[in-house]
Prior knowledge:
The protein is built from 3 helices and 6 strands. By secondary structure, it is an alpha+beta fold. It starts with a strand and ends with a helix.
Amino acid sequence: MDYEFSFDEYDKPIAEFSMGHEALGSWFTEELGADHQRIEELIEIIDQLINRRIEQRQIEGREYQLKLNQQDAEVRSASLDIDIDDELPEDTNPYDEESFSECGLEDFQQVLKSWQEFILSA
Length: 122
């Protein structure tokens, strides 16, 4: 999983992830942003998961949902909950690569800490 952090012309932090992990980039950009307190809370939640003090945590955002358990992190767009299959022609699969991503919890922790360092260095 490759990723890159940058700032847009309005100094908003942007996260871009490799194919198959685009939803993670959208989640970091749109849901987490530069919210230092929220970043610290997530780091604490991940520590609790890794140390098996909690089993899972679900965090609802405006456009994305983050599900964490002791092994994985999953980002899912709320738009995936809309059932559009009835409207599509037969044998048509909707493109949802930018709507769902998952990775290992430790990989997610590393990205989160990199994001925190990136935000703090700005």
